[in-house]
Amino acid sequence: MFGLPAIIIILAVPVFTALFILLLGTTKYYSKKIGYRLTVITLLILVYLLSADLSTAHSTLLFKELFNEMLIYDTYSTLFILLFILGTFLSLSIGKSYIYKSDIFTPESFSLILFSLFGMILLAMTNELLSAFIALEIASLSVYVLVGIHHHSLRASEAFFKYLLLGSFAGSFYLLGLMLIYAQVGSTHFNQIAMFMYTHPISEIYLIVAGGLLLMITIMFKIAAMPFGAWVLDVYEGASLPITAFMAGTFKIAIFAIALRLFIGIFAQIKDFYDPLIVASAILTLVSGSLLAMVQTNIKRMLAASSIVHSGYLLIGLSSIGEIGTYATQSILFYLIAYFISATGALGILAYISNGVEKEISYDSLKGLGRQHPFLSAALTVFMLSLAGFPSTIGFLGKFYIFTSAIEAGYTLLALLGILAAFVSIYYYFKVISMLYFYEAEGEKVVYGEAYSFLFIMLSSVAVLWGGIGTGLVSFMPGANAITDITHLVIESLYIFSN
Amino acid sequence: MLSLMIFIPIITSILLFIIPLSLRITKIISLLASTIVALLSLKVYSDFQAISSLQFVEQYAWIKSYGISYHIGLDGVSLGLVMMVALLMPLIGIGLINRDKKGFWLNLLLAQGGIMGAALSLDLMLFYLFWETMLLPIFFMIGLYGYGRNSFISMKFTLYTIFGSLIMLLGILFLAIAYKNQFGEYSFALNDMSQVVLSEKESLFTFLAFMLAFAIKVPLFPFHTWLSDTYRSASTGAVVVMSALMAKLGVYAMWRFLFTLFETTSNELSLYFIILGLFGLIYFGILAMHQSHLKRLFAFSSASHLSLIVVGIFIYDVYGLLGSSYFIVAHALSSAGLFLMVGMLYERTKTHSLEALGGIAKQAPQFGFLFAFFALSTVGIPGTAGFVSEVLIILGAFNYNIYVGFISATSILVAILFVFTMLQKTIYSKVQSATENFYDLSKSELIALIPIAILIVIMGVFPNYFLKQIEPTALDSISKTATIQGAK
Which residue of A has its CA nearest to B145? Predict the structure, then answer.
């Protein structure tokens, strides 16, 4: 039995801390400091409990009798859960300065973050379609509210309603697809669906194919792939910056947790049906995302648009997953990790320099930052380089893996398109860098508080660089090689159970 | 040892960024770092054995599952390049000693490390990493310390070059996957990848993908449209680094990577590139004649000479290759000296325009003499290193084909033409208002320029001493292609 007590704690602790903060929030003993610290400490405990499980490939069904094999705890879910927790931790740590200075972070916001974390953890462990939907909705609903938590701001309310309506609408496709699959298989368990497809000829599983297609629509919506991703710009812009960082970095990974499990696991046999659609969507996503990102003048919107482009790269990876697809899956996992650190860092810096005030950060407002805050600017430069896929950063290796697996799967032209999108992205990311350094400052030097946030910005920028050039020579710091090894274990663990 | 030469500048640069020191100490430390690298390079030179194999090889696994390793080494052709970078860098530093921006020094060191790394890499991924990374300091140097619409120009230059590099990346990935399909595992090592068998069409496309990146960097006609803007806007430091060091790397990479990876294809296509090179030689020469802006003039003249170097390597002749690798070093020395002096001239007169200059020789005899010397050494007057290399390349060209030989020999006259016109306008003729208060070279400027001049003369008078190090590699490379041609 692999760390089972730890799993119970991992599932229970976020929920109970969330409830506790909620209750405490109604008393006079609550202060923002306490809420924040409780959340962060909870996350640290979770990381501590989980991190040991990454070193082996393992797979366990959780509480077989109680949950009827709905939950599975394997290295795959361990990695994702760790990423969620680290992502939440990083967003909160970098965002600390913003959270403290802004007055929109009520006790509920910390609870909501933990609830959404709980939903994501469940999503990574789910082995069944219905519980996956429930987990997805737990996570999504919390994020919807977090987007609108700044209820005096019109823009935030607009974002909230847009996201809520579109999100629920997209969610209904999932239920429809689930129904079709259930109608044919008579079960919603991944293993049984896979078994059904294995034992029946293709002519008898058309309902599953159609159902899978509907599931895909929801997933595409959630990861902001075109033509379903138009909501991203407004929603990311309307949300307050730490929340945007949380959504762009952490929540996006969560969707991939379920998407990958579906595509490597149960839909592997009929993936040929979906590949043309995924490719079409990847092309659309890359092109429209690049165009959108190019024309933005607000950096937050630019990052939002560029996150669409990054979904496009991930779709390239998704379409290159073949029958066995180890390299392609590894490349997606690696890319997710790379993107998550870089995006959280970049948005985190924006949160840091906006000093807790909701305002538009245009390109011009970054002018002269390089001279006033050399370290902060260097970190932002590193994140931009990584997002652009410039060598010697982790983002480059991520793109390298994705493109390699695309060419290997025979999608050379798609890889070319990806490379062209990367070329365009150099333009809008380097524009930020040039604003930082090539212009004189317009205002006085602003002092940004919270050395704690600053520390984590620096740490993540070092991690971005180390992930790009790090080697096995320094054993206690896992470099690119170690991440690849872990992703390999992760894939392995997926096949332990099915055998 | 080679690793030290790559990473001393890079690490020094990073440390200097993190630890805030005064400008003076920053300068001293960065000069010290590049001097140490120069001393190391001398040690490498004396330990280098005149044989064709790779030496000082270091190899460590980097990303194991993809067979990417940190793999560096040195042979006769890269020796020249590495020596030149290592020796020029401290001199460039001394020549630009009055640059009062800390970032300038950090970027200079970073550029040095990147160029050194790219010149030594034997693994394609590692090469790509350095190839791209060395762009970043140039991006900053143009954007921060350039003239005119520099932030726009630096963006344009960066996008232009990165476009080429990204297409090359696609080529690299394509090759790596072909290797995996044929040998069952990934490898990005140059030696391994050269064994890949590609169909004619695949080989052509991959070759062109690589060529695009290199041709933009050199630049080869018609990929030169970034050149004049960039050189005009860039500060002296950036121009020296770009023209003297980075452009040479492009030519070197053609030889190192194209000739190793696509032996047959490069051989088959060689005629086209010889024609492109010869055309560039004349076209850039004529363009240079019509420039009134000093930096642009020299930008085109360097492009013209680089085209000749490209011709030299594509004629597949021992003399051609020897001459080209010699010219890489020789031209780097001359153009470094020249662009440094153009920078000094701008500091004194605040103009780059040929019309506004004149009579410098009268005002500042030392300046006039050295300026004329460097200008003439680029066109290869006898007694300078340029002469030796041009003679070798032309010899090779005649061996290849009498017409090619004839054209390359005569078109050098174009270069002589515009250099003499330029010299006549700047250092002779009448003293003008801009040059009225022209003062002569200072001590630090002399310290920077005289060693370069001496090196040029030594290389011109005793070429054998240097050529014997390159010769085995060149012979080996040519004999390989001879067997291919024989096989056909």
Answer: A438
Q: Give A-chain residues touching B202 at CB under 8 angstroms.
A: none
- The alpha-carbon gap from A395 to the nearest alpha carbon of chain B, in Å, equals 13
Contacts of B14 in chain A (CB under 8 A): none
Q: Output the six-digit token pair for B120.
A: 């030594």
Question: What residue ranges do the domains of chain A occupy?
Answer: 4-498
Structure tokens belonging to residue B22: 């005064």
Cα A383–A386–A390 angle (5° rounding)? 135
pLDDT tops 80 at residue A116: yes
Residue A158: which residues within 8 A CB-CB, separation 6 or more? A234, A238
Q: Is B278 helix (H, G, I), strand (E, B) or coil?
A: helix
B47 CB burial (10 A radius; 0-12, 13-18, 19+): exposed
Q: Which of residues 171-210 of B touch A (CB under 8 A)?
A: 173-174, 176-177, 180
Cβ partners under 8 Å of residue B440, min gap 6: B363, B364, B365, B366, B367
In terms of Cα–Cα distance, which of B328, B323, B255, B295 is closest to B88? B328
pLDDT per position as a tens digit, B264-299: 888 888 888 888 888 888 888 888 888 888 888 888
pLDDT band at B68 (very low <50, low <70, confident <90, very high): confident
How close A437 gets to chain B, by Cα (Å)? Answer: 7
Could you tell me the pLDDT band of residue A498, with boundaries at 50, 70 and 90? very low
In terms of Cβ atoms closer than 10 Å to its own Cβ (0-12, 13-18, 19+), residue B334 is buried
B360–chain A nearest CA distance, Å: 35
The alpha-carbon radius of gyration of chain A (Å, integer) is 22
Q: Which site among B174, B201, B206 would you substitute to test the A interface, given the most A Cβ atoms closer than 10 Å to its Cβ?
A: B174
**Token pair for residue A303?**
């990052």
Nearest to B252 by CA among B318, B306, B173: B306
Q: Cβ separation of B139 and A471 shorter than 8 Å?
A: no
Collapsed DSSP state (helix, strand, coil) of residue B56: strand
Please identify which residue in the block is written with the tokens 């200075």: A101
Sign of CA dihedral A302, A304, A310, A315: negative
- Which chain B positions have a beta carbon within 8 Å of A423's beta carbon? 159, 162-163, 166
- Residue B256's identity, in one-letter code, is R
Question: Under an 8 A CB cutoff, do B150 and A434 touch?
Answer: no
- A40 to chain B nearest CA, in Å? 29
DSSP assigned state of B123: B
Residue A386: per-residue pLDDT: 92
Average the pLDDT over B119-134 and give the result.
Answer: 89
pLDDT score of A486: 79
How far is residue A492's CA from residue B250's CA, in Å, rounded to a whole number? 43
Q: Taking CB atoms and an 8 Å limit, are A422 and B139 in contact across chains? A: no
Give CA–CA dist B172/B192, Å, rounded. 13
Q: Rounded distance, CA B192 to CA A332, Å?
A: 27
Q: Rounded to whole angstroms, how far apart are CA atoms A199 and B321?
A: 65
Chain A residues near residue B170 by CB distance under 8 angstroms: 403, 407, 412, 415-416, 419
B contacts of A412 (beta carbons < 8 Å): 170, 174
User: Which residues, 6+ apart, have CB-to-CB distance to A61 below 8 Å?
Assistant: A69, A71, A72, A73, A127, A497
Q: Closest Cα of chain A to B141: distance in Å?
A: 10
Please say whether the beta carbons of A469 and A477 come within 8 A. Answer: no
A410: left (phi over 0), alpha (psi -120 to 50) or beta: left
Cβ neighbours of A416 in B, within 8 Å: 170
Cα-based distances in Å from A147 to A1, A246, A293? 39, 10, 21
Contact check, Cβ <8 Å, A430/B158: yes
Q: How far from chain centre, in Å, is Cα B346?
A: 23
Q: Is B418 helix (H, G, I), strand (E, B) or coil?
A: helix
